[in-house]
Structures are given as structure tokens and as C-alpha cells.
Amino acid sequence: MLESFKLCFQITLRNWTVYKKDLISNISPTVADPALIMVSLGLGLGAYVTNVEGMSYMQYLAPGLTVATALFTSFFESSYGFFVRMTYENVFKAMLTTPIGVGEVVFGEMLWVGLKGAIMSLCVGIVLSIFGLMANPWLIPFLAIVGFLVALPCGAMGLLATALVNNINQFQTVYSFIIAPLYFLSGIFFPIEQMPNALRFLAEFFPLIHGVRLAQAIFWNREVLSTFVLHGGILVLQSLFFCAIGFWKIRKKLIT
Amino acid sequence: MMITAKSLTKTFGNFTAVDHIDLNVHQGECFGLLGPNGAGKSTFISMTYGTVQRSGGELLVFGHDPKTHSRDIKKRLGVVTQDNALDESLTVLENMLIYSSFIGIPRHVRKKRVLDLLDYMNLTHKKDTKIITLSGGMKRRLVFVRALLGQPELLILDEPTTGLDPAIRHLLWGKVKELHQQGTSIVLTTHYMHEAEVLCDRLVIMNNGRISAEGSPRNMIHQHTPGYIGIFALEDREKIHNLSSQINSFNAHEDSSGIYLRAATLEELTSLHSQHGLNPLQIRPSNLEDVFLKLTGQELSDDA
Ligand SMILES: Nc1ncnc2c1ncn2[C@@H]1O[C@H](COP(=O)(O)OP(=O)(O)OP(=O)(O)O)[C@@H](O)[C@H]1O
Ligand SMILES: [Mg+2]
Asked: What number of other Cβ atoms are within 10 A of residue B258's Cβ?
């Protein structure tokens, strides 16, 4: 067990070694995207939308954008990234001749994705809090937990997509028809209470919405503990669920 | 016993890649696995460390079942995979250091172990270059380094010298022999019959997933294609055809480079010259290649 965990960690380290070689270009989209949305929507649209649930539009956007970073970083890493490592770079072929098994490959990647999500959310959160968008900046460290808890199930969904697609272009379909719609339904840009019930129900199965609620609780300093118990719990369950089927499906790709 | 396979079978859908094979690899021996493309060599090899799971039969490696104990097996194994599968995003040194961490080499000895082996394979000067900039031969040597990092008891070489120039091939043969002498057990697949003759104590020839012959290189030649081969120009086809009706101790087949006649003794071949005016292009003792062609059905026929 301990050995297995060490091996997972070595895989995470391997990814970090590769990632840090191109740190600037790797990080810039994850930081630039929320900044862009913040400026265009927050400042632009915010001039007209002046009161969302009793706050400015920027204040409303801040928590959602923080966790969306975790969604994108994790989904892309475990879909495109994992697919390239598996099919084009043959990274796992050599790994699997070492004591590493498919379990370590999958959970090593998940650990990496989770940590990346945590760090990204933390960074975005820190920047936003500097602009005074956080009611209580002492809660910033909790954003790392939220980032981790969102990145895990979203990464596992990416892994599942990797196991199911026939070629790399099909990720675009997964993105356009599943990830992007749910992203807009997760209460980042507007309260979803006015949406049809069927859509709201659907969105509940997507981890992001629970992450958004957690981040909102943290940013706005409202009922932090009880939100963590409920939505944190749901995220843990979703992580277990998606990791289990992701593992089960990707195993068949790596072991024949 | 390093590897024991009994009636080992692997099917992909309704295609049988490995078909009820029985074989043993003994401690300390260099065991060869020959066979045409698609014979099932790599499939067999992948079963020994568990990335391909058998569909039937039994398989034990170091006495463990790879289905349930692949980690215990992989700790004692080094593999030169058929495709290099080097981590292209990393430099030579980074590749090997990360790989060392995977196989559990203690942190403080990793770098020394890697540098020693890079030196052993004459790659020290390349340690900080990217994988993409290495030549095919350098990559192959690096894969050897990777396979040797864990000081394996059993070294598995899947076509280790394919695509390499003769000098590097001889260099690698030297290293393999050295490891063999130090007691490492070796499983080798190759398409170079000469390589198998030079390195292997014992070998099997596989064809369509089955084993068609087994033995030491010398015994196999003795058993399946004893004697000498005379190679004749294609222009002599007529004469040889006429002859073969008189002499039936010859085995003959033809390919684009000439007509091959095999006889039990050298005299029989030389007598063709003195008695029938047939001039061979070349006369040589028969070798493993002749056995291979005969057993894998690529020798056209037994009689001309
Ligand atoms: N994952 C797979 N799915 C379906 N068929 C496969 C798979 N892997 C191998 N095969 C088939 O099994 C057969 C044996 O393949 P294998 O790679 O073991 O041959 P080989 O003896 O190593 O050949 P080569 O000398 O070309 O490397 C081939 O016909 C191949 O197409
Ligand atoms: Mg092969």
C-alpha cells in the first residue's frame, strides 16, 4: 500500500518534471482565462448587471471562475494530455515494465491532476482576493481543498473520455456537448434557480456545480462549514465514482 | 526455473496470437524466441510481465503468476521493449533518473547507477540531450541502460538490435554475452539468425502462435538442415532441374538471389562442378537461417 502510494507519487513527480520545463506557457491559459472573463464580463457586463444576489457582478463571478480553473486544468490534462502520453509518447508502455501497475498509473495521474487543480485554484483565489473580492482572505487555503476536490472527479471524467474516444479529435465532441454546457449550467455566471428544473437536475451530477457552491461559501464567507459537509461530501462521492469507472475503462486500454 | 509456460494461450477476439505453447526458460541460460513477423513473440513476452493477460494455460515467472503477482515479477526483470518507448519530453539523464525512481533504486545511488550505465553503453556525452536528437542506435543503447538499471535477474530483449549498424550490433552482443557470463538469464527475440546463433544456448522457433521446433542452434541445424548449401545462379535452373531427377539426395529451393541446393556432404556439392560443370556462386555450411526458412514454410519445397 505504502509502496503503491510512493509509485503514484513518482508518476506525479514525472509529470511535474515535464510540466515545469514549460511553466510559463503551461500556466498562462489557466491564469489568463479567468482574468479575461473577469475584465470583460465583470467590468463590461458588470456595468449593467449591478446587483446579483445583493452583490456586484465581479463579486458574483469570482468564486465560480476560481473553481472553473480546476475543471479545465484537470479535464484537459487527463483527456488530451493522458491520451498523448498513452498513444503517441508510449510513456506508459515503459512504465508498466517497472513495478508500476495500471492502478498506480491512474492514481498517480489523478494525484497530479488534483494537486494541479489545488494550486491553480489557490493562485486564482489569491489574485482575486487582492482585488478585494474575498470577504475573508483567511479562508484562501480552503480554496486549495476545493480545487483538489473538483479536479479529481473532473480529471476522472477526462480519463473516462480517453478510454472511450477512438482518436484525439473526438475530445472536441466531449468538450462541446458535455463539458462546456455543464460549465455554463454550474452557476458561475448567473444563479441557476431560473433555469428549467430538468437542466438544474442534470447539472447536479456534474462535479463543478458543487465546487462552485463551496467556493461561493468561501468567497462570500457564508455557511462555510455546512457547505463543506454537504457539497464536499458529494464531491468525494463523485470522485470515487468517476475514478472507479475511469480506472476500470482505462485498464482495458493499457492491459489487453 | 525462470519461466514456465504450459499450454499458454492468448486470443484477441477470435484471433489466436499464442496457441498452446509449452516452454521453459532455465536459470542462467540465454533463450531465443525466433519467428516471422506476427508469430506471437512480443505477445508472449508481454504476458510474462502482465501487460498482456493470458487467455488460457499456465504461466509462471520466478514461480509467480503474472496475473496476480506482476509487481513481484517486474522487480526482478529488465525489459528492452520492441519500440523504445523513451520519454520524449525529458533528457537522457532525466529519463533514466525518473525510471530509477520507478524501480525503487534508493535516491542516493540513483545518479551514480545511471552514470555508470551510460558510461557502460558509451552514452555519457549525451546525458543532457533530448531524446529526439539521439540516433536510432543511441536510443537503443539507452533502452539497454534502462533495462539494466534494476540489475535484473532476467533480462528480456525484444528485437534488441533491429535497425542497428553492424558495429553497434556487435557492441551490444558483447554486452549481452558479458551479462550472460555474470549469470543473468536472458530471453531474446530476433529476426537475425546469426544473432541467435551467436548468443543463444537454446531456442524455439514460433510460427502462427505455435512452437515448431526447439533445441540448441547446433542441434537444430543438425536435425532440420544438416550439411552444406550451394548457391547457384538462376541461369542454371534448367541444368539443376535435369539433375534433380537423377540425384534425389539434394534439397533445393529458389529465391530472387539464386538457387539453393543442400547436400549432406561438401563432396556432393563440389562433385556437381567436376561432374556436371555446374559452378556454385558460393558454398557454405547450413545455418539457422536455413532451419528458419524450412520450418516457417518459406522454403518453397523440399525437392526442386
Ligand atoms: N492488442 C492486440 N489486439 C489484437 N491483435 C493483436 C494485439 N497485439 C498483437 N496482436 C496480433 O497478434 C499477433 C502476434 O503479434 P506479436 O506482436 O506478438 O508478433 P511478433 O512475433 O512480436 O511479431 P514481430 O516480429 O513483427 O514483432 C499479430 O498478428 C498481431 O496482429
Ligand atoms: Mg514483436
From this structure: 18
Dist. CA A197–CA A143, nearest whole Å: 29
Nearest to A17 among B70, B79, B94 (CB): B94
Atom of ligand 1 minimally distant from the CA of B39: 21
ipTM of the complex: 0.83
Compute the distance between CA of residue A58 and CA of residue A45 in angstroms, rounded to an integer. 9
User: Would you call A115 helix, strand, or coil by DSSP?
Assistant: helix
The DSSP 8-state label assigned to residue A168 in this structure reads T
Most ligand 1 atoms within 8 A of CB, residue of B42, B48, B81, B207 to mutate = B42
Residue B186: its H or E element: strand B185-189
Mutate to test the interface with A, among B87, B130, B142 (most CBs of A within 10 A): B87
φ/ψ of residue B234, rounded to 5? -60, -25
Q: How far apart are CA A166 and CA A150, in angstroms?
A: 26
| A93:B102 CB<8 A | no
Q: Which atom of ligand 1 is nearest to the CA of B13?
A: 4
Q: How far apart are CA B257 and CA B269, in angstroms?
A: 18
CB < 8 Å to A3, chain B: 104
* Nearest C-alpha neighbor of B18 from the set B50, B49, B54: B54
Give one DSSP letter per residue of B30-70, joined into a string.
EEEEE-STTSSHHHHHHHHTTSS--SEEEEEETTB-HHHHH
Rounded CA separation B45/A4 (Å): 24
Residue B128 Cα to chain centre, angstroms:
32
A142-193 residue pLDDT tens: 999 999 999 999 999 999 999 999 899 899 888 989 888 888 888 888 888 8
The pLDDT value given to residue A183: 87
Pick the CATH number of B3-221 from 3.30.450.40, 3.30.70.1230, 3.40.50.300, 3.40.50.2000: 3.40.50.300
Phi then psi dihedrals of residue B202, to 5 deg: -150, 150
Cβ contact, residue pair B102, A96, below 8 Å: no
Q: Which residues of B touch A101 (CB under 8 A)?
A: 50, 70-71
A251/B contact by beta carbon, under 8 A: no
For chain B, the structural domain boundaries read: 3-221, 227-285
Q: pTM here? A: 0.88
CATH of B227-285, one of 2.40.360, 1.20.1070, 3.30.70, 1.10.10: 3.30.70
